[in-house]
User: Which sequence fits this backbone?
């Protein structure tokens, strides 16, 4: 096992940041000239140069110390504190806004690529939480940042660790790109496949049921076995189907909510906070007042209806109303027009194509999660010297 040495940031890196903007105005931003990097341009640990603003030569030359170079590290120091990016493919001229630290190596003690992973580790998260807890100014100061310390092996092993982790990062980036590609393909398919048929009010395709919340103070309504769905349960779905909920109701709770359980394979859609989340529920269920349940007619494919409603969020919001938050009235939902083929077999042919696209996306999402778990494990093992990088090369 290699020997680890403890470093502080100040031992091997300089910190620079822009001090104010000397009256820079938004109208000075241009579509050409030197690049201006902000924290919003940080995407998955790199800078998305395509989203950057630009400034003129005068602004670029105001501070030579924050003119970017290849292999610089950037760390946001306020707002979303601790967000990091590694500078690659740096344009000839690029500078920073006033909310970012430029972290630049001043000797060969610590490899910048190694520090990037340290700054994305649990150790740095804990350091930030301790710095920010109890303070009125939620920002990372240069004085505090210089105090951050970490352990590292010799420089060659640091480079090897960074190489191993960057290989996993490359696989993660490629998988994210595939997910985006398949999502774009699916969006095009939805545009094409859901445009044929006749326009029919939703109320002619299904029975629309309203839900409610039993009194939370009465425990007899709660902690049973019946699925009780809220918009929050729908918010994190990555597939068309849902089969469980954060809270469940007893038999008496169901009677207080919708009276009876809706049958499996019904569609649920949120009608407020926000409008438009939807899913197919694969088990008998009930739900709160933030949703509507749609029991489909025998000649209506629930999966087709799910996909059509999924692409119609903006249109549903337009017929919603409210001051505190938008709410979709049952009357408006009932008369919302659905373009749908008359024959059930044609509906199913369309929905099965879209489901296949969703399953491909989900396969890549599962692989992405696996890679992210591998990376977390490797970071924990390699950055703490629990496992020697020599065994992996």
Assistant:
């Amino acid at each position: 096992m290699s020997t680890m040495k403890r470093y502080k940031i100040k031992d091997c890196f300089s910190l620079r940041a822009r001090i104010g903007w000397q009256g820079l105005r938004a109208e000075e931003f241009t579509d050409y000239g030197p690049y201006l990097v902000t924290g919003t341009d940080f995407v998955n640990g790199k800078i998305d140069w395509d989203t950057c603003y630009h400034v003129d030569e005068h602004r670029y030359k105001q501070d030579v110390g924050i003119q970017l170079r290849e292999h610089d590290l950037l760390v946001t120091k306020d707002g979303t504190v601790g967000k990091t990016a590694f500078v690659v493919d740096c344009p000839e001229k690029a500078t920073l806004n006033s909310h970012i630290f430029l972290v630049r190596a001043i000797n060969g003690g610590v490899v910048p690529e190694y520090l990037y992973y340290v700054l994305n580790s649990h150790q740095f998260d804990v350091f930030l939480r301790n710095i920010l807890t109890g303070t009125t100014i939620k920002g990372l100061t240069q004085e505090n940042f210089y105090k951050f310390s970490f352990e590292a092996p010799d420089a060659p092993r640091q480079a090897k660790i960074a190489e191993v982790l960057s290989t996993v990062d490359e696989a993660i980036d490629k998988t994210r790109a595939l997910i985006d590609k398949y999502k774009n393909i699916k969006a095009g398919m939805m545009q094409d496949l859901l445009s044929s048929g006749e326009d029919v009010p939703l109320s002619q395709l299904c029975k629309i049921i309203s839900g409610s919340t039993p009194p939370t103070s009465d425990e007899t309504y709660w902690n049973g076995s019946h699925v009780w769905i809220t918009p929050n349960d729908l918010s994190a779905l990555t597939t068309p189907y849902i089969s469980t909920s954060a809270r469940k109701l007893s038999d008496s709770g169901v009677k207080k909510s919708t009276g009876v359980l809706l049958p499996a394979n019904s569609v649920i859609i949120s009608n407020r906070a926000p409008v438009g989340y939807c899913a197919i529920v694969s088990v008998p269920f009930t739900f709160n007042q933030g949703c509507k349940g749609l029991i489909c007619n025998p000649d209506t494919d629930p999966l087709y209806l799910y996909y059509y409603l999924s692409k119609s969020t903006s249109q549903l919001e337009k017929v919603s109303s409210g001051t505190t938050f938008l709410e979709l009235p049952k009357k408006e939902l009932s008369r919302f027009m659905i373009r749908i083929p008359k024959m059930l077999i044609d509906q199913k042919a369309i929905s099965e194509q879209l489901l296949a696209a969703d399953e491909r996306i989900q396969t890549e999402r599962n692989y992405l999660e696996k890679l992210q778990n591998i990376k977390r494990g490797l970071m924990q093992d390699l950055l703490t010297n629990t496992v020697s990088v020599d065994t992996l090369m």
Summary: DSSP finds twelve helices and 21 strands in the chain. The chain has a mean pLDDT of 93.
